[in-house]
Amino acid sequence: MNGTSVGRRRFLSAAALSGLGGLAGCLGSGGVSDAGKRDVSSNPVASSLDGRPRLGPARSETDITLVTFDDPSCPSCASYHGGTFGEIESKWVESGKATVYNRLYPYVAPWGRTAIHALVALNRRRPEQFWSLKSKYYANQDRLSADNIVEETRRFLRDTDVDADAVARAAENGANESYVSTEVSDGDDAGLYGVPLTYLFEDGEFVTTIMTESFGTFSSAVESHG
Which stretches does the entry tag as region Disordered (predicted)? Predict the structure, then answer.
């Protein structure tokens, strides 16, 4: 598992406490493209999953695959991860039924892109710390900005064994732009229309896309597909 259950639970607790955002999602326009409705083997959202943050085993080992796009600056993403996503982990991931991949799409505030660069840099160095940093972004959205995101990232990592300065420099310099561009390109090719947005697959087949709905919506979609 890329990341730990402890790290995820801390992440969920911090996000839940943030109290930010409604459940409508951060919406754009349009809808899922034909490419975004393809099976997992040829869907753009699954074309670059190697090295992406993951909960659960490799997708070949589970019946259900979820690929979720989100943005650390999105209030609806914070609400979703503090609620529904936790149920997905406890009811599907921990039982070995599902694998969840996280993809990062800069969608809301300018500081979100800088935070994404930091998250990518951290995931490459210490993948088990990814969810913890993300939780701090979600819990502190109301005071983060383009002016302070680099220093706040450094502060968030101060008490860890991570090289905080290296991660902060990567964020400040946009060192992972190729990675971020791929996230955006794959999302656009799949018709991403807002965040958080999850592409749901069962046995490799595309089922549907879901934004901030309850776990019951995910469960019902799988039951209807089967």
Answer: 34-58
